[in-house]
Design brief:
Number of helices: 6
Shape: elongated
Strand order of the largest sheet: 1-9-6
Distance between the termini: 110 Å
Number of domains: 2
Helix content: 40-55%
Order of helices and strands: EEEEEEEEEHHHHHH
Radius of gyration: 43 Å
Length: about 290
């Protein structure tokens, strides 16, 4: 049954269906496909409420909300529901949807008086309307200025505000990086390959800055061959060679370094940086 069977176009009504089922059974009222019929649509999903219980019987009410955006008379289809019994069988229950009248709003043409369309009203512009544009233009100009200043100062090796960029000497950068690697404790967490990669890359950068040797694409042997032409203390040169060899074994031969080798790796690198830096300072004094 319908709560009402007449509505205005665009309004919603509730279709209500009642039935009685034995307690313990399962009553299913599936949502119909949309549209229910041409011109009528369901809104949301059906809901089932228990109205009462008498002598082991449940009085149920199934409701669903429908609407229409077309005027006219619509015959609603029958809606199926399913009753799942205790013995496992399922019965189909059909509900008659009935008829639905959809009406439009009636216009009294006897008192209707048409008017001409009015011209668009224009208002004078205010300063408040222009403020966002002024702000946007100011931001664009400021960004352009900052970008030009940044590019110019970068070429001059200065900060954005014109201060000279302080570049730490290679040995300071290398020692600071090695100390950071020590603090990461990579080999203690089974990341030996990364541990030795970071150490050797730090030394590569230092050697490149210190001796102007393009080490990043060189093998360990090529690095040692290039350094053999420099005045490096034999002991530090030998220790560096052993560190490079150990690093290659760990990275490429899956060698498992001992605890002692892991602990000595950074001190060897630090001694090499310090020794070569002090040697450079002595050479500068000699000149």
């Amino acid at each position: 049954m319908n709560v009402k069977d007449t509505l205005l176009i665009g309004d919603q009504i509730i279709l209500s269906f009642k039935t009685t089922v034995p307690k313990g059974t399962k009553f299913i009222f599936p949502a119909p496909s949309n549209p229910i019929t041409e011109g009528v649509e369901i809104v949301g999903t059906p809901k089932i409420d228990t109205l009462s219980e008498v002598n082991g019987l449940l009085n149920l009410e199934a409701k669903m909300v429908v609407t229409s955006f077309d005027s006219g008379s619509f015959v609603l289809p029958k809606f199926p529901a399913y009753l799942s019994k205790l013995d496992g069988t399922i019965d189909t229950v059909w509900f008659d949807g009935g008829k639905l009248e959809v009406q439009t709003i009636q216009i009294d043409t006897t008192t209707f008086k048409p008017f001409d369309v009015k011209d668009q009203i224009t208002y004078p512009y205010t300063v408040k309307e222009f403020l966002p544009w002024f702000a946007m233009a100011a931001v664009v100009v400021l960004l352009g200025y900052l970008i030009r200043r940044f590019i110019k100062n970068r070429k001059l090796k200065r900060t954005l505000f014109g201060k000279p960029v302080v570049i730490d000497p290679p040995h300071i950068v290398a020692l600071r990086t090695l100390e950071q690697i020590r603090g990461e404790k990579l080999w203690q967490s089974n990341q030996e390959k990364l541990y030795y990669t970071n150490i050797i890359d730090t030394l590569r950068i230092y050697i490149e800055k210190r001796y102007n040797i393009q080490t990043m694409e060189m093998t360990s042997k090529e690095i040692l061959d290039a350094l053999s032409k420099e005045k490096i203390e034999p002991k530090e040169y030998q220790n560096l060679g052993e560190l490079l060899k150990l690093s290659d074994l760990v990275k490429f031969a899956k060698y498992k370094a001992t605890q002692e080798e892991n602990e000595n790796a950074i001190p060897v690198a630090v001694r090499f940086v310090n020794a070569t830096f002090l040697q450079e300072m002595e050479q500068e004094k000699g000149r």
